[in-house]
């Protein structure tokens, strides 16, 4: 460590690197093997240290190029990320500020700002002013925190039961992971051919759970499936949840952002009845990794479920103040909502609405092109900004070699996916810099 604890030279070098990384279009880059990295990087942890400049150079020359730039406009796989410049820069400020976001006493100003973002999202969804929540690390932890809260509420009423979560066959894998760590069952409701869970499928799954002797305590609706960007019939699910006294959770990790677009709002009808919802700003709200906004209709149930007790913590627990960590499965908490807050505060909500709409328009436009090309087949009509399609006649191996070539050429990152056992590929579009012409070029490369 530098003797005085200050190291302006390395600091400036890091600022310079970060600023350049934001300013210049990033190369896509790509992975290397462990053996290659062993050879290129060597042993980096030493007794005497490499020095900041050498370590930074190693990152810049060797390590960073061995990571894919998920914010590249032609990174179209999984769910990409496309943070605004301001959100990314403010993430540096969050790091530099050492704010403890778990309690009001320590983080009040930052938590206040994060909460205004949560209030904005809650208003968009039609939840009451008394709703509230926190930012956690990601959608998986958001879903877990909500499901734990739901079960605690049910347990308080019914005691110990053979619990079950009801979710769509197209729900995200994290819901199954949540059921596993909670050691409860999950009963999958059959989605329609459209990819949407409707009343019939959800009702059948509730009955099936009951006939197996299980006690359903929550039903999860997805606002934008990860594979297809399709929304469940949230209104029907809300109604069933009410009839069967189930907690209604909306997993909008990717797709909830679409509610910001007035033309899309009606797709989300029913979300106003949700007991909880999540949305990941690192997916489609233009914030850097990693954050999930989690909102509860009645946060008190979450506080009862999640507050940790310990001799050293009681000073916080007795304060009567709003301590975010009491509402999710975490204790120490980075104020990970702050980059989104800063960017939204600076740009205003209207720009977000426009950016999300532009992604959806682009998805619809490229879907039309796909429908017109005889060698392609659109698997489902898009609802948001995910477009899934097949190259007629291709096996998985064909998709794989095509995908590898696109990356080797440093043009695009588009990986194979599958639906009902049949290989396909998909464009997940969340980056306002993604160009229609480039998408067309990718389609051309499949001919
Ligand atoms: C990505 C995603 C998740 C998981 O979120 P992480 O932030 O990756 O943990 C959950 N649900 C849906 C619908 C998602 O798209």
TrEMBL record:
GO terms for molecular function: aromatic-L-amino-acid decarboxylase activity; pyridoxal phosphate binding; transaminase activity. The keyword Transferase applies. The modification N6-(pyridoxal phosphate)lysine is found at residue 283. Keywords: Aminotransferase, Decarboxylase, Lyase, Pyridoxal phosphate, Transferase. Its cofactor is pyridoxal 5'-phosphate. PROSITE patterns: DDC_GAD_HDC_YDC. GO terms for biological process: carboxylic acid metabolic process. PANTHER family: GROUP II PYRIDOXAL-5-PHOSPHATE DECARBOXYLASE, MIP05841P. Belongs to the group II decarboxylase family. This is Aminotransferase class V-fold PLP-dependent enzyme. It comes from Aquiluna borgnonia.
